[in-house]
Model the fold of this input.
Amino acid sequence: MVMHNARINDNIFTYGDQPIFTREGDAAVIKHSSFDILSTETSVWTPSAAKSIYLTAVQTSAPLGVTVMLSSNSNSFLSLRVTTSSSAISQQFPSGYLLSPGNSIDLRTSDEESASETSGASNAAQVAFNGNSNFTNVSNATGLPDSLYATLNSALLATTGGRIVLDYSNMVPAASSQLQIQSVVINFYCSLSLTLAVGTSSMIYYWRADPGDAWIQLAQESLSLVGTINHLIVPLSQDITAAVLAAADPWTVIENMQTSFVGSNTGLGLGNTIQLDAVTIDISMVGINEITLFGSEM
Done:
């Protein structure tokens, strides 16, 4: 949570052409904080020693729905529900709200709404893997799952393979400055069918944060006996949240990231097939909310 403090003197008066003058009085205090999910009470205003907070108004805004609750000494005294995207609501206290000396104002949230986006690849291109580039219909791997496949078949007296590199676009929402990434999951919709038990057929899953980075292997699945690995309905999902959030700017990772899918058949016979339908990215987000407290210390 980010907090900002400001103090202003609102006891300034002017009279005709006379110069501005001031009178003694309590300096107004403005406390501003930004936050996402606060499941436990967190202090947003701690008074100076031997002082009491005199709260006169509260303003809060949020890009997604959230309930903001203020309390003091574990006693809740105000709950505000923001329901409209990017809206701001205010609560004024005509006579002010005077807290006990030394008591802080604490904040927590509940009923937080989240937003999620699922994106398919905007472009798919094949590059060689171990000298092979044998996938057909590579463009079928773009978009969301649609039962149209990029396909790699085994060959007679030859190994086959290839790497499909997938790019993504428009994954960063327009309001990204107001949103905090909660999770990022890559979903691979693919299958491997081994009908000839000669050699090994493999599917290998990768991602990277930038096209200039080395590939990071997420998982590998292989068959050397007759059988099937089927992720066409329920995808193989890989959570990369920790890696994305560890970056200096997670939204830059989302903007530039790539995935890749490698297929390999080492058997020297016909009948083994690897299919890729799509590689999608699920992003879950919560709002970065704002609250401003107005008042003074007495």
About this structure: Residues 5-25 have pLDDT under 50 and may be disordered. The chain has two helices and 22 strands. The CA atoms of residues 30 and 209 lie 40 Å apart. Helices lie at 241-245, 250-256.
